[in-house]
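Risk register update: the risk of archive-format incompatibility is retired. Evidence:
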Amino acid sequence: MGNCHTVGPNEALVVSGGCCGSDYKQYVFGGWAWAWWCISDTQRISLEIMTLQPRCEDVETAEGVALTVTGVAQVKIMTEKELLAVACEQFLGKNVQDIKNVVLQTLEGHLRSILGTLTVEQIYQDRDQFAKLVREVAAPDVGRMGIEILSFTIKDVYDKVDYLSSLGKTQTAVVQRDADIGVAEAERDAGIREAECKKEMLDVKFMADTKIADSKRAFELQKSAFSEEVNIKTAEAQLAYELQGAREQQKIRQEEIEIEVIQRKKQIAVEAQEILRTDKELIATVRRPAEAEAHRIQQIAEGEKVKQVLLAQAEAEKIRKLGEAEAAVIEAMGTAEAERMKLKAEAYQKYGDAAKMALVLEALPQIAAKIAAPLARVDEIVVLSGDNSKVTSEVNRLLAELPASVHALTGVDLSKIPLIKKATGAQA
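Archived output:
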């Protein structure tokens, strides 16, 4: 089996080893990890900040002045997995003091190399820049060990030949001189400043008086402007009140119009209902009876039509029967007439011209009657002629033309009859 190991946020736990010769390593900080008995190994390394105090004694600067420099550095092991693995590879199993010594030697080496490139004035006067330079140069080297430089400051700089003291004395003298000059200039400036202040006081007083007058004038102008604005606002308020009253009156009128419209719509609806009622009433009292009467009349007309059709059919049948009877009678009469005509034809054929002549003579009175029919309606005929022989000649001419007319009408030549031929010759 195994154990569960816990670790706080200020240290890291490294679990190495495992089954089948595994070289897997687990890095845990601020958590827990499982380690098997016999086949797993657990080690811890501190993540706390380590304070170092690098010290370089009698290191010559770029000008050959030997200086002693002390500083203070804050470092710690980084927690990124790759960098933590690097730190564990180099420092696992060592105590904190051993780690401090390694990092301290590295910092002191870089501090010495940088001191040899700077002057005393650069180191003394700009310690922050000097510390920054040391931090930037040393950070890559300690970073490759998995160490991070959190801060580095120069604590003290001094020498054994009083070089810095001499610089201080010279600086002190310069400062003293500058102080005396400064006092004289300050007194001079104080007098000038006092006069300027008096002048400024008078200017301020005049300006204050001017501003007071301007303020009074501005107050009066503002007061007038306020009065004018108040009057304008009052007039606008009055106008707005009147406009609002007009709008309210307009709204009231619109509402009255809407009420009238609604009443009119209701009245129209009532009238429409009344029209529908009247229409229904007309349908019930007029249209339906009219339709019934029309239907009755149509039925009567249909009956009359059928009656007329039946009567017409009966009349047609009657006419057909009468026609058939008349046709039969006519056929019988025609047959009898034909038989009679046949007998007459046979008689005519037997007797010859004498029979034909007898027929013509029988027809002449009828012909004469038809010709004289128009003259029957004449009451009196007056012949205007003074010559009696003229009338006689006209009568003779008519008689002479009679046989020719009869021959043209009947085909019978009367001139061949002895009696008529004799009469005609006597007239001629």
